[in-house]
């Protein structure tokens, strides 16, 4: 098996600041956590931007540029830029940072789904910001839209930027979507797939479901046509990423997916979760990929081709 690629997802658009004092919201805090995760052993850092005034998810290209450039200057990790955006953003808004910043990697959600995080609102007694509870509650009536048309919008922008799509697969039907897009030339092999389990509205985070997803992808897409990774929401994060490692996959951890390090113990950074999964991987005699080894494994264009450097 190839060396293990560890990705750290730093802040996301799911959790809100009231849920953890350690969730980074400002550019400086996001950068610090990303660099810390890289120093802990993450080969890839997955970034979102938030409005520094109140922590609301943002698609502001200037914020993405500020964050990515600072991470680039301080560590060698490959940077994956989200196209998940925030609730209600159009495909054009969500993909906007890709054409300007030309990252090595960008997320590409592989289908539409009910993306429900409204139960988190019940955990907040005194919100830090007025937007948080309405934001969470609104997802009871939310469809996260990733139509074939919008996927083409994202893919076209990524191909033009030389950016590798990271296909986020939340349920088994999305594998069929990827097959269609591969067959029609919208996507090109080898693919990079991130199986995302445990979101309310997607497939539950169980070992059986992960095995089913991986085997379905192998049969549908051809095992030679993709490299895969796994992340899981909430308390399933570490147990399921351990299963993924045993199956030969790569892993993603970080505060985007899970705010805790153990029962009742908030993680103080994504770096803590990176260190935890690397300790387990080391006990399994797995070698950890460096950023450049991850670039070669995933077929990334390299640091010199991104759009936030002065040379670019």
Structural class: alpha/beta
Radius of gyration: 18 Å
**What is the distance, rounded to the nearest whole angstrom, between the alpha carbons of the first and last residues?**
35 Å
Count the DSSP helices. 10
Shape: globular
Q: What is the strand arrangement across the widest sheet? A: 1-2-5-6-9-10-11-12
Quick recap:
By secondary structure, the chain is an alpha/beta fold. 38% of the residues lie in helices and 17% in strands. It has a single domain, classed as Alpha-Beta Barrel (TIM Barrel), CATH 3.20.20.70.
Describe this structure in words.
The protein is α/β, with parallel strands linked by helices. The protein has a single domain, classed as TIM Barrel (Alpha-Beta Barrel), CATH 3.20.20. It contains 10 helices and 14 strands. Strand 11, helix 8 and strand 12 form a beta-alpha-beta unit. Helix 1 runs parallel beside helix 2, helix 6 runs parallel beside helix 7 and helix 8 runs parallel beside helix 9.
Features:
single chain, 312 residues, alpha/beta, TIM Barrel, 10 helices, 14 strands
Task: List the topology elements.
Layout: E1 6-9, H1 27-40, E2 44-47, E3 49-50, E4 57-58, H2 61-74, E5 78-81, H3 91-101, E6 105-109, E7 113-114, H4 132-137, E8 143-144, H5 148-161, E9 164-169, H6 173-183, E10 191-197, H7 207-221, E11 226-232, H8 237-246, E12 250-253, E13 260-262, E14 265-266, H9 270-283, H10 291-298
Parallel strand pairs: 1-2, 1-12, 2-5, 5-6, 6-9, 9-10, 10-11, 11-12
Antiparallel strand pairs: 3-4, 7-8, 13-14
Helix pairs in contact: 1-2, 1-9, 3-5, 6-7, 8-9
């Amino acid at each position: 098996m190839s060396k293990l690629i560890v990705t750290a997802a730093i802040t996301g658009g799911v959790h809100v600041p009231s849920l953890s004092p350690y969730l980074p919201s400002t550019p400086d805090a996001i950068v610090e956590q990303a660099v810390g995760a890289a120093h802990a052993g993450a080969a890839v850092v997955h970034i979102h931007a938030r409005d520094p005034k109140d922590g609301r998810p943002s698609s502001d290209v200037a914020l993405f540029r500020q964050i990515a450039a600072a991470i680039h200057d301080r560590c060698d990790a490959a940077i994956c830029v989200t196209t998940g955006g925030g609730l209600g953003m159009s495909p054009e808004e969500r993909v906007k940072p890709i054409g300007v910043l030309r990252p090595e990697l960008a997320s590409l959600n592989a289908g539409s789904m009910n993306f429900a995080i409204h139960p988190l609102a019940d955990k907040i007694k005194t919100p830090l910001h007025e937007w948080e509870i309405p934001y969470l509650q609104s997802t009871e009536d939310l469809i996260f839209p990733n139509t074939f048309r919008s996927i083409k919008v994202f893919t076209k922008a990524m191909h033009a930027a030389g950016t590798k799509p990271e296909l986020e697969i939340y349920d088994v039907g999305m594998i069929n979507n990827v097959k269609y897009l591969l067959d029609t030339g919208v996507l090109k092999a080898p693919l990079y797939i991130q199986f995302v389990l445990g979101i309310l509205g997607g497939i539950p985070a169980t070992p059986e479901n992960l095995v089913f997803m991986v085997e379905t992808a192998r049969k549908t897409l051809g095992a030679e046509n993709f490299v895969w990774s796994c992340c899981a929401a909430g308390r399933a994060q570490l147990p399921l990423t351990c299963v993924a490692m045993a199956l030969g996959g790569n892993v993603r951890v970080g505060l985007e997916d899970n705010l805790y390090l153990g029962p009742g113990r908030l993680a103080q950074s994504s770096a803590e979760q990176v260190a935890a999964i690397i300790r387990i991987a080391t006990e399994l005699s797995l070698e950890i990929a460096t950023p450049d080894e991850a670039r070669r494994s995933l077929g990334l264009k390299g640091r010199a081709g991104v759009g936030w450097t002065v040379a670019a």
